[in-house]
Write a structure and sequence with these properties.
By secondary structure, this protein is α/β, with parallel strands linked by helices. It has two domains: 308 residues, TIM Barrel (Alpha-Beta Barrel); 33 residues, no CATH class. 37% of the residues lie in helices and 14% in strands. The strands form two sheets. The chain has an eight-stranded parallel barrel, surrounded by six helices. Helix 3 links the parallel strand 5 and strand 6. The chain is globular and about 55 Å long. The N and C termini lie far apart (46 Å).
Length: 353
Amino acid sequence: MEYRTLGRSGLKVSAITLGTFTFGGVGPFARVGNQGVPEARALVDLCLDHGVNTFDTANMYSSGKSEEILGEVLQGRRDRVVISSKARMRMGDGPNDEGVSRHHLIRQCEDSLKRLRTDWIDIYYMHEWDGTTPVEEKMAALDTLVTQGKIRYAGCSNYSGWHIMKSLMASERDRRVRFVTQQIHYTLEARDAEYELLPVSVDQGLGVLVWSPLAAGLLSGKHRRGQPTPEGTRQFAGWTEPPIRDEERLWRIVDVLAAVADRHKVSSAQVALAWLLTRPAISSLVVGARTPAQMADNIAAVSLKLTDEDLTALNDVSRPPLIYPYWHQGQFAAGRFSPADWAMHAGNPPPEW
């Protein structure tokens, strides 16, 4: 296993993180997975045997059941692992049962600690932006939780670039704990994060964890052009995340993934994950699995080394267009780009005059 430093922190996380989105199967989550304690234990055991030290959950996954299951199977092994959880989503019917207010965050953190059977959460993510709570209140609440020893690092998820910078500004101005990481959706099919989120991560020293790095299984190799949706997949169950805006583009990417995978005699999933591990600021990929064999295949992506030819083919078929102001910067500012700028512009063809 490869271990990467999480942003500017001193924390080392495995390049693959086990995502527990499928633990519990309560409510709408049952369409994605319904893994109980025995199935979860088998996955966690396999991950630990392969050197995975990072496990991701959230308070709202199966209404807390995911945290409960993860906490149970990690009993006696807590000191060996890094646990991340999240808060912000609605967890009740009351007016204060969602958001990132001090009231909601502290209560939800304490509830998560009980479900996880632990005294601390290593990485605590703000699961989604809350535009009604002042960022100063949010960062102060996170600072309190760190001071109390209930969390060790803070991060955000599904924020825009300006949301991140506004939060960082508040924490630095008031000398509060700052975000050290963000968790984002980023795949060969969905490279929107390259416009702002990767550059801000490079510039501000944020480690990046990627959720659903196989696009909910669409890049796993199970889905192929012209074939019916396979039974047992999220799409077969009616799951609509992430949105696919250009289906033909998706199939072109799937075709190239399959060709690269055939050259290396590995799965398409391994190629898609290995590509992500070459990208700037990436610390870990949050991968779920239905079976230990599937998880073992995902873990093997860490050892896959893609050639320059592979990377060129994958980038050419998936590169996002340069939207404004990036096309203008590409023409007139490239001579003074920083490493953060190149997180967006690297690999783009030179402008034509």
